[in-house]
From TrEMBL:
<dbReference type="Pfam" id="PF08922">
    <property type="entry name" value="DUF1905"/>
</dbReference>
<dbReference type="InterPro" id="IPR015018">
    <property type="entry name" value="DUF1905"/>
</dbReference>
<dbReference type="Pfam" id="PF13376">
    <property type="entry name" value="OmdA"/>
</dbReference>
<dbReference type="InterPro" id="IPR037079">
    <property type="entry name" value="AF2212/PG0164-like_sf"/>
</dbReference>
<protein>
    <recommendedName>
        <fullName>DUF1905 domain-containing protein</fullName>
    </recommendedName>
</protein>
Length: 171
């Protein structure tokens, strides 16, 4: 476990990251957690005394990463922007997002659908799965399953699927 302190910060204007609350994981620390890696990876450990797992470190350039803090996590930690945070982190080598059975069933109808899904980067597979699992009602879940299957037929990544669905809704 790599131990260090950080100050909680918030992006004011930073594109899609505007409004995000985060802590910076400097390049020197990130290199100790997972040497030589410049892309996103998952970590586990402690934030103050709160146990965490499966949280993503996002690259910010020059070897630095950020760890975003969702509002639910800030509430548990009782922390806000400007507060200090004690971190103990290591790579979460056990992290995985499992494919939901209904998605697996839909994609296995045709081998090309499953192949299209499996050639997606792992991060995009996770976007699809998390988006599907976030559906609060059965009709929403069915709609999302349909959109994912259609995206796999067209070999779209997650972002392309969302943009295509938004454009379709505007018609």
């Amino acid at each position: 476990m790599i131990k260090f302190n950080a100050i909680i910060a918030r992006f004011e204007q930073k594109g899609e990251k505007t409004g995000w609350t985060y802590v910076t994981v400097p390049a020197a620390v990130a290199c100790l957690i997972k040497p030589g890696v410049k892309k996103s990876f998952r970590v586990r450990g402690l934030l103050d005394q709160h146990k965490i797992s499966g949280l993503a470190l996002l690259p910010m350039g020059e070897g630095d990463f950020i760890l975003t803090l969702k509002s639910s996590l800030k509430k548990v930690l009782e922390k806000k922007e400007g507060d200090p945070l004690y971190l103990e982190l290591e790579e979460d080598i056990d992290f995985e997002i499992l494919m939901p059975p209904d998605l697996e069933l839909c994609l296995s109808e045709e081998q090309k659908l499953m192949d299209s899904f499996l050639i997606q980067p792992k991060s995009h597979q996770n976007y699809f799965i998390n988006w599907l699992n976030a559906a609060k009602t059965e009709p929403t879940r069915v709609k999302r399953l349909t959109l994912i299957v259609m995206a796999m037929e067209k070999r779209l990544n997650y972002g392309e699927m969302i943009r295509a669905a938004s454009a379709q809704e505007r018609l």
